[in-house]
Design goal:
Strand order of the largest sheet of chain A: 1-9-8-5-4-2-3
Number of strands of chain B: 10
Shape of chain A: globular
Shape of chain B: globular
Number of helices of chain B: 11
Structural class of chain B: alpha/beta
Oligomer: heterodimer
Helix content of chain B: 25-40%
Structural class of chain A: alpha/beta
Low-confidence stretches of chain A: 1-28
Strand content of chain B: 15-25%
Order of helices and strands of chain B: HEEEHEEHEHHHHEHEHEEHH
Order of helices and strands of chain A: HEHEHEEEHHEEHEEEEEHH
Distance between the termini of chain A: 64 Å
Strand order of the largest sheet of chain B: 6-7-8-3-9-10
Number of helices of chain A: 8
Largest interface: A-B, 18 and 22 residues
Largest sheet of chain A: 7 strands, mixed
């Protein structure tokens, strides 16, 4: 008790657990909301996560276990991705968050605000401006550069999970590179549907070694993972796994010789910006069957429209689809 | 010709204790290519322990199991790396369980069940895998239009035949069978025995079959090994042992067969 100052009354309450923590010696770790360390997580946790990330980069596609923390958001909302982002974020980073390709859905907005508040960093919706892009379900249409990091939110990191429920067994299968079971699933797809009907979370082999789940991105985005200049990090909060694809790493989608991998094709271009060869969302417009197909990547679509491109329905699309611009 | 004289599997002094309880003690035998050996005995005699040891699902307390690999070299199966052993298990060996649900993937189609081993060793051509599965279904007398049905929709006899096809598709040289006809009614059992005998002869399979049914041993096996309380008490040619049993226990077993 001798450490207590002379002014403390006997029986005074101990310091509140949420009281502000002192800044780190480098003095740059504040900058966010009072009472929180820079980017919410404490420095020891960030170090632990960074070690896992470094190991993951060293062994592309291998799932590294890590001591995932409780985050102030429910599991399934991107707790894994948020922990990775918090660990790699610096004060000069510019963050973009997308959910199903969109910058303005609840999940994307709340994660962006979370880091604005706890780290005081700049955010953007422009793919080109961002240094870190946290994503759920999509890879941006705009090709990424070698100074960008893509952080995926992953619900089920184990691609073999629904075929083999035992974790001990799936680990052994990875260790011994026994991946025949994954082809059993693709075989079943062809036997039932006449083609490989898996359209998202389509299994890939990374650097010729590890079978890896690309998280629930559409298989349309799989080719973008191959030899990507950007570092790709994957965080699964509930499952407590981190894995990574280092820049310029081979990523091959599994297939059969007589049923090769194919990406989704769309019959028409985006109804708002006229873009071809992009991933489209179907939007139902009314109760009489009216619908339109628009870019799932909202930033890409808006930039194209700003540059003067127009799709066939741009003029008459309702504002909840086309936005204010 | 010299090759023919060398054993495929050579077991010496195989012993397994579960704590102080005896699994099996000092079992030794050689199995030659194309030979079918039956292990008979009552419940608790150590036959299932022996089969688990032979198929490397259990580690022995003492003794060794050596197997002639495809390159002709005899190797101790417990000295193989785990990767080599698992590879052996799904290519050169087969295991037919009494309960087909243990040996099959009940939720995926019959075709995928047969094709799984092919895909595990690198087959990546859907048409060829399916063609192989079709020809194997035909061989085990399952209608080929059932190829896309899951084994859940199959009868007990069909499941057992599917399990056999799944094991034989990679052309194994050694197959372990644990009461393959257990739980099947007699007419289905007769058909299955007929099929097993034909396949074993056609493919020149070596088989270790564990059964408590002496009739099954009589029909399928060339040689018989009688076990009691973990020990082998009598061995010999099947007809010799069953027609002229020497040990009192074997005599009891043979005289216990119900006649119709």
């Amino acid at each position: 008790m001798s450490a207590v100052g002379p002014t403390s009354a006997k029986g005074a309450a101990p310091p509140h657990p949420a009281a502000p923590r002192p800044p780190s010696p480098d003095g740059r770790r504040t900058g966010g909301a009072d009472g929180y360390n820079f980017a919410y997580l404490d420095e020891q946790t960030k170090r632990m996560i960074r070690r896992a990330i470094l190991k993951a980069i060293a062994i592309p596609g291998y799932q590294v276990p890590f001591a995932s923390r409780e985050m102030p958001m429910p599991y399934g909302w991107g707790t894994g991705g948020v922990q990775i982002t918090a660990s790699i974020l610096g004060p000069d980073d510019i963050l973009k968050v997308i959910d199903q390709g969109s910058d303005d859905t609840t999940n994307a907005v709340s994660i962006r605000r979370f880091f604005e508040k706890t780290a005081g960093i700049a955010t953007t919706t422009r793919t080109r401006e961002a240094t870190i892009i946290q994503t759920r379900h999509r890879i941006p249409e705009e090709p990424l550069a070698d100074d960008q990091v893509l952080v995926y939110q992953v619900p089920t990191p184990e691609p073999l999970r629904f075929l083999e429920p035992r974790e001990t067994e799936t680990r052994k299968m990875h260790a011994l590179e026994e991946y025949g079971l994954m082809h059993v699933k693709l075989y079943e797809d062809i036997a039932r549907h006449g083609h490989i009907a898996t359209t998202y979370d389509y299994p890939v082999k990374v650097d010729g070694r590890y079978l890896t789940a690309p998280s629930p991105t559409p298989k349309f985005d799989n080719p973008k993972m191959h030899m990507s200049p950007a570092l790709q990090l994957f965080g699964a909060g509930r499952e407590k796994r981190i894995y990574a694809i280092a820049p310029f790493t081979r990523v091959v989608s599994l297939d059969f010789e007589d049923h090769p991998f194919e990406v989704n094709r769309f019959e028409r271009p985006c109804a708002l910006c006229g873009a071809d060869n992009v991933y489209l969302d179907e939007v139902v417009l009314d109760n009489s069957g009216g619908r339109m197909f628009v870019c799932s990547d909202t930033d890409f679509c808006q930039e194209r429209r700003a540059a003067g491109h127009a799709g066939e329905m741009l003029a008459r699309a309702p504002s909840f689809v086309a936005g204010q611009r | 010709m010299v090759e023919e004289d060398l054993p495929l599997l050579s077991v010496v002094g195989l012993t397994k204790f579960y704590g102080r309880r005896v699994g099996c003690i000092d079992v030794a035998f050689d199995l030659h290519p194309g030979e079918v050996m039956a292990v008979v005995g009552e419940s608790g005699s150590g036959k299932s322990t022996l089969l688990s040891l032979l198929s490397t699902q259990l580690e022995p307390t003492a003794g060794s199991i050596r197997y002639r690999m495809r390159d002709g070299v005899m190797r101790d199966v417990f000295a193989l790396t785990e990767a080599e052993r698992r590879f052996l298990m799904r290519t050169d060996w087969g295991f037919v369980h009494q309960d087909p649900a243990l040996g099959l993937r009940m939720a995926v189609s019959a075709g995928a069940n047969v094709g799984e081993r092919l895909m595990a060793v690198g087959a990546r051509h859907y048409g060829r895998i399916r063609g192989e599965a079709l020809s194997w279904l035909e061989r085990v007398e399952i209608e080929t239009d059932r190829i896309d049905d899951p084994p859940r929709a199959f009868s007990g006899g069909m499941r057992q035949r599917l399990q056999i096809a799944r094991n034989l598709v990679t052309g194994p040289r050694l197959v372990f069978m644990d009461e393959p006809t257990g739980g099947l009614d007699v007419s289905v059992q007769a058909r299955l025995l007929d099929l097993l005998r034909t396949l074993a002869a056609d493919l020149d399979l070596s088989v270790v079959i564990v059964t408590h049914d002496l009739a099954v041993a009589r029909i399928l096996s060339h040689r018989i090994m009688v076990m009691r309380q973990g020990r082998v008490i009598e061995t010999g040619l099947t007809d010799q042992v069953l027609d002229d049993p020497h040990e009192p226990y074997t005599q009891l077993l043979v005289s216990s067969i119900l006649q119709v």
